[in-house]
């Protein structure tokens, strides 16, 4: 289904930092190309499937969703590790392809759709029978083809009209972005030779060719030759994230949020936490404020997106 987040496109774009900006702009360019033509009219297939690589927590899903928001199209995230195959028994509407078809059918009035296929690096060279079936089904998705005899949520074979609408949406107006952490390659390439530390932040990221060789060739060939690589977040990126998020934190928590956040940046760099760093900082901020008894009424614990709301809230707190 389309994302349920309430952020506007501009809100999402404000959180894009450092090396993410170039990747974000590239995703927008590919998405606009994807939605600007009827692909079936071209003399050859338009290969818009895009592989987005980066260590865990660096913001792959966030960038894909931010691009969908800016393009003003529905967004659906799917994880390879959670794929439920069509031949699974007693699965009914839970199968992954049923969810995809339902999403595409409901999105048919939009200019297009963005589908994010996460954990693509979980595809194996020597898969089990279950994984092999999941691979076959994901290949159909990447090839822009709807499985034969696909059923709906009520376990009935979908009608020709519905199937045609889903097929048209998938083949002509769906931008598929696949994400993979390939964490073992990042860690192997960045690990220091001596000492306890985890990452050498000056080490170059794995090359696209090195990353691609860890996937079966039949998967790699289903993507554009341009692999987008997101490097780990740097200290300046963490600081930028803190400053941006601070503007959306209730004013009475900002000082503590920034203090704790800046204290935790070295550990976040060492552990390559990525955006999960902010989640921990927010929790530690709430705990610190509650411990000293400075937390206001729980009803006021909300992110403020409108400056006028913030001024009114501040006046209410200051009133006797």
Describe this protein's structure.
The chain is an alpha/beta fold and 320 residues long. The chain folds into two domains: 9-229, P-loop containing nucleotide triphosphate hydrolases (Rossmann fold), CATH 3.40.50.300; 235-318, no CATH class. Helices cover 47% and strands 8% of the residues. The protein has helices spanning 9-14, 20-36, 60-71, 96-106, 129-142, 160-173, 183-190, 208-212, 217-220, 235-246, 254-271, 276-291, 307-318; strands spanning 50-53, 75-79, 113-118, 174-180, 227-229. The chain has a five-stranded parallel β-sheet with strand order 2-3-4-1-5, with helices on both faces. Strand 2 (75-79), helix 4 and strand 3 form a beta-alpha-beta unit. Helix 2 packs across helix 3 (60-71), helix 4 (96-106) crosses helix 6 (160-173) and helix 10 packs antiparallel against helix 11. The longest helix has 18 residues, at 254-271. It is globular and about 65 Å long. 31% of the residues are buried. Residues 1-10 and 192-200 have low confidence and may be disordered.
How would you briefly describe this protein structure?
It is built from 13 helices and 5 strands. With 320 residues, it is α/β, with parallel strands linked by helices.
């Amino acid at each position: 289904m389309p994302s349920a987040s309430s952020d506007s496109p501009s809100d999402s774009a404000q959180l894009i930092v450092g090396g993410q900006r170039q990747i974000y702009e590239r995703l927008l360019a590919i998405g606009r190309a994807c939605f600007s033509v009827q692909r079936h009219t071209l003399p050859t297939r338009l290969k818009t499937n895009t592989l987005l690589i980066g260590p865990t927590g660096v913001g792959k899903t966030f960038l894909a969703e931010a691009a969908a928001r800016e393009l003003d199209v529905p967004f659906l995230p799917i994880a390879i590790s959670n794929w439920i195959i069509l031949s699974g028994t007693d699965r009914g509407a839970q199968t992954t392809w049923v969810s995809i078809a339902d999403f595409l059918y409901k999105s048919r009035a939009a200019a297009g759709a963005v589908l994010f296929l996460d954990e693509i690096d979980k595809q194996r060279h020597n898969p089990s029978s279950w994984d092999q079936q999941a691979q076959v089904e994901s290949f159909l998705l990447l090839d822009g083809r709807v499985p034969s005899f696909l059923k709906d949520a009520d376990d009935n074979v979908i009608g020709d009209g519905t199937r045609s609408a889903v097929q048209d949406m998938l083949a002509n107006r769906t931008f598929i972005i696949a994400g993979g952490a390939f964490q073992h390659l990042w860690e192997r390439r960045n690990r220091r030779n001596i000492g306890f530390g985890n990452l050498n932040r000056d080490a170059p990221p794995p090359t696209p060719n090195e990353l691609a060789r860890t996937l079966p060739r039949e998967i790699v060939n289903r993507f554009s030759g341009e692999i987008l690589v997101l490097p780990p977040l740097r200290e300046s990126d963490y600081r930028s994230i803190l400053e941006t998020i601070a503007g959306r934190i209730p004013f009475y928590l900002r000082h503590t949020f920034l203090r704790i956040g800046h204290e935790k940046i070295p550990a976040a760099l060492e552990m390559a936490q990525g955006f999960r760093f902010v989640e921990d900082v927010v929790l530690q901020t709430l705990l610190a404020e509650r411990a000293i008894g400075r937390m206001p009424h729980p009803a006021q614990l909300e992110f403020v997106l409108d400056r006028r709301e913030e001024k009114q809230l501040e006046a209410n707190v200051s009133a006797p």
